[in-house]
């Protein structure tokens, strides 16, 4: 017999439905989305496994940004659940959108049309955060440079043309030009 645990995760609660392969649902509950709620779900799974001796246990939930991360990591890292080879599946919302509550999510995993998902470990979450921060800084730097270029254009929109006309060897982007453009800023700082 197989056990499928469907979790509908929100910011404050975990709606849980434990469905067996014969579609019976020995446990349906609404618990708090914290350590005590996740521990209660784990205890239900362990009690049912003691009774039924499951050949496969799948805990499935929809990826709901920050809300599903902590329960998924709790179940993934728990030593008692690891001994039972419990599979933790965090499914993308576009695949599971028809299944709006815990019962239907458990049923979705019961029909086994999902593909194995990979949980993001903490070190990869930190890397993802650093990468996003770097991207945001680069985007801000690009916007700032674009703003600076627009200001140069407003101040001296004919300067490049005059350089070409008079055949001067200087460049619009030379250090002298940059000093002229930023000199006012240095004096005021």
Features:
2 domains, 54% helix, Nucleotidyltransferase, domain 5, alpha/beta, single chain, 5-stranded mixed beta sheet, 189 residues
Account of the protein in words:
The chain has 189 residues and is of the alpha/beta class. It has two domains: 2-119, 2-Layer Sandwich (Nucleotidyltransferase, domain 5); 124-188, no CATH class. It is 54% helix and 18% strand. The protein has a five-stranded mixed β-sheet. A hairpin with a 6-residue loop joins β2 and β3 (27-32). The longest helix is centred in the C-terminal third of the chain and has 34 residues, at 122-155. The protein starts with a strand and ends with a helix. The relative contact order is 0.12. Pfam families: DEDD_Tnp_IS110. Residues 5-149 form the Transposase IS110-like N-terminal domain. It comes from Streptococcus pneumoniae. One of its GO terms (molecular function) is transposase activity. This is Transposase, IS116/IS110/IS902 family protein.
What is shown here, in short?
One of its GO terms (biological process) is DNA transposition. The chain has helices at 35-52, 66-77, 79-83, 93-96, 102-110, 122-155, 159-165, 175-188; strands at 2-9, 13-20, 27-32, 56-62, 87-91.
Q: How many angstroms separate the termini?
A: 73 Å
Helix content estimate = 40-55%
The major pleated sheet works out as:
5 strands, mixed
Average pLDDT works out at 85
| CATH fold node name of the largest domain | Nucleotidyltransferase, domain 5
How large a portion of the residues is in β-strands, by DSSP E?
Answer: 15-25%
What is the string of SSEs from the N terminus onward?
Answer: EEEHEHHEHHHHH
Number of domains: 2
Kindly provide the radius of gyration, computed on alpha-carbon positions and rounded to a whole number of angstroms: 29 Å
- Total helical segments: 8
What ranges have pLDDT less than 50 throughout 5 or more consecutive residues? none
Give the class-level CATH name of the largest domain: Alpha Beta
Quaternary state, please? single chain
SSE-based structural type: alpha/beta
Tell me the CATH architecture of the largest domain.
Answer: 2-Layer Sandwich
């Amino acid at each position: 017999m197989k056990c499928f645990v469907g979790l509908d995760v929100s910011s404050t609660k975990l709606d849980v439905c434990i469905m067996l392969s014969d579609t019976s649902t020995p446990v349906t509950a609404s618990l708090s989305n914290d350590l005590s709620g996740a521990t209660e779900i784990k205890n239900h799974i362990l009690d049912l496994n003691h009774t039924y001796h499951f050949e496969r246990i799948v805990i499935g939930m929809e990826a709901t940004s920050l809300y599903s991360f902590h329960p998924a990591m709790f179940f993934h890292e728990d030593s008692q659940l690891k001994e039972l080879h419990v599979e933790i599946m965090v499914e993308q919302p576009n695949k599971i959108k028809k299944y709006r509550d815990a019962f239907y999510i458990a049923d979705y995993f019961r029909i086994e049309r999902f593909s194995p998902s990979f949980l993001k470990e903490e070190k990869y979450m930190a890397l993802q955060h650093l990468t996003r921060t770097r991207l945001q800084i680069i985007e801000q730097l690009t916007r700032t440079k674009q703003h600076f270029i627009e200001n140069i254009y407003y101040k001296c929109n004919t300067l490049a043309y005059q350089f070409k006309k008079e055949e001067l060897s200087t460049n619009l982007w030379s250090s002298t030009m940059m000093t002229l453009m930023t000199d006012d800023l240095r004096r005021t700082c």
